[in-house]
Amino acid sequence: MNVSELATELKTTADTVRYYTRLGLLSPNKASNGYRFYSAKQQSRLKFILSARQLGFAVEDITVILQEADDGKTACPAVREILKQRLAETEKRFQQMLELRDKMQAALAQWEKIADKSPTPHMVCHLIEQFGMSDNGGTKNEQE
Hints:
Layout: H1 3-9, H2 14-22, E1 29-30, E2 36-37, H3 40-54, H4 59-70, H5 76-111, H6 126-133
Antiparallel strand pairs: 1-2
Helix pairs in contact: 1-2, 4-5
């Protein structure tokens, strides 16, 4: 099947197929007219790549996994280890986002009680500028 047919079959875009082909993750056959044709094996490989991307695997991770499989080795241990790393990274980012959400909620609660001010040559928005100067992420008492 050609690029468009493969893309349609796997509900992705032709650009996605071309991207993974450029990276060397897919190896289509070339016809004499220059068109690329993808075998059932390449279709399965792209399906794997798309599934792995949905699980948060990076292209570099997928390259490692596919190399293991291409060498005739089971990729399962590598998959587990990479997923453990990705899960730990995701958990860290999730905790950082929770902290950011808490800061934003605290700032908004404080800012709802403070009057607006016009900008000056030394101040764009006193809410944000005071927030950055405070110890706990809240705003300081207004002194201007």
